[in-house]
Amino acid sequence: xxxxxxxxxxxxxxxxxxxxxxxxxxxxxxxxxxxxxxxxxxxxxxxxxxxxxxxxxxxxxxxxxxxxxxxxxxxxxxxxxxxxxxxxxxxxxxxxxxxxxxxxxxxxxxxxxxxxxxxxxxxxxxxxxxxxxxxxxxxxxxxxxxxxxxxxxxxxxxxxxxxxxxxxxxxxxxxxxxxxxxxxxxxxxxxxxxxxxxxxxxxxxxxxxxxx
Length: 212
What we know:
By secondary structure, the chain is an alpha/beta fold. Helix content is 41%, strand content 22%.
C-alpha cells in the first residue's frame, strides 16, 4: 500500500478558503495580509489561524457552507486523484482550512479521508472560534505519522504535495516531497518542484500515466 497526502488550499483547490470567505464578508484586506505572512512562515500558524477566523465572527453559517461547497478546484484535480487511485494509492487531504470544504470535496474527488478544522457556529452564524485536527504548524506531520503507523506505510511509500509553510512538517516524513506552485520555504525542502497550476503535472512527475 502507498499513500499520497495533498494539501487543500492552493493545491487541490485553486485559492485560499479563508480568503474567499473574507472577501464575501468584507474583511479581505486584513485576512489576506495575515494569510500571506503565515504561508511564508513569518507567523505562527496557530496564532494566525485564530486571528483570521476571529475576523469572520457573525458571518451567516448557511452562506459560509455554500461558499465552501462551491470553491474552484485546481486544474487537473479530478484526473490526478482518479489516476492515483487507479494505481492503488490511498489519497488523503490535510488542510489547515475547514471541514465545510474538505468534507464536501472528499466526496467530489473520491478521496479516502480528509483532516481539517471546524468553524464553530452558534445561532446560525460563525462565532469567530475554530478548532480541529490541523491547528498547529506541526499538525500535518503528526497526522501523517499516525496514518503511516495505522496503515503500515513507510516514508518511502509516502508522497506529499503542498504549497505553504504549514506543509513543512509532513515533508519531514515522506520520501517524495512535491512543492506545487509553492512558497520558497517549501521549495527548499522538496525533491520535486512543479510551477504549472495543473495537478496532472503531479502524475507526470511521478512517471505515471494519466487515467482520463
